Structures are given as C-alpha cells and as structure tokens.
Amino acid sequence: MSERTGGCMCGAVRFTASDVPAQFGICHCEMCRRWSGSATLSVSLPEASVEWTGAAHIRALQSSEDAERTWCDRCGSGLYYRPVEGPARLVLSLGLFDDPSGFALRDEIFIDCKPDSYAFVGDHPRRTRADVMGPEEVSS
Predict the structure, then answer these.
(1) Which domain holds residue 56?
(2) What is the CATH number of the domain that holds 11?
(3) Which of 15, 117, 120 lies closest to 58 in space, CA to CA?
(4) C-alpha–C-alpha distance, residues 19 and 17, integer Å
C-alpha cells in the first residue's frame, strides 16, 4: 500500500490517498458501465484515508439503494462510488490517479453483464451477478 495523488479532468477537485492497495478490480454492472462509459477499473479504500481539495465542487447522486456516485461539477469527471451502508469506503477509478501504473488486476465482478466486445486477459477470479449479490437478488 502506498500514497497516491489524483484528481478530476479540470483539476478543480484533487485528492491525496494513503494506504492505496496495489490491486484493482473491474466491475461490468450496468450502473458502472453507464457511469464510466465502459467497465469500471477501481480501487476500494477507507474513506478516512482520502484527503480532498476542492471538495466544494463534488456533487453526489444516490444512484441505487446501495450506493452513491459523485462527480466534479465543473468538468463532469466521475470521482467515486460510495456504499451508503457498512464501513465508510470509497471506490476510486484508476483513471483519476496521476500515475495509474503499478496496480495489479485482482478480479472482475458482474462478468455475466460484460458485453462481448472486449475482454481482460489473465488468470484472476471472475464473479457473476449472483456471486456478488446472491441468488435471491438476481431472481427478484
């Protein structure tokens, strides 16, 4: 784990994150694809480990029962996904980091929602919607 910096496209919102994990995950769910324009490549870390500048430009939308998504109100860059319950964690896109190098792919989730137009190589876990949400959530 290390400290990394990053920010939105226009620079109005910046952050310094400590204890950033060396691994990232990929989500193929419909919400993430619509939010990012494709699969979302991201790291999850404790909210308390991220310090923000320009926080007045952060806007939020509760995008589902389970989470909210944020963006910069100046340039529209997606900033983070935050579960509304459970431990205070932020899921930051790799594209926000000033240097997104050095991360290793940990896993892919909602693999059954992935379009057939791309694929990520490598031997890593690939979990379906039912694996992530539980079979009762999928059938409802």
Answers:
(1) 2-133
(2) 2.170.150.70
(3) 15
(4) 7
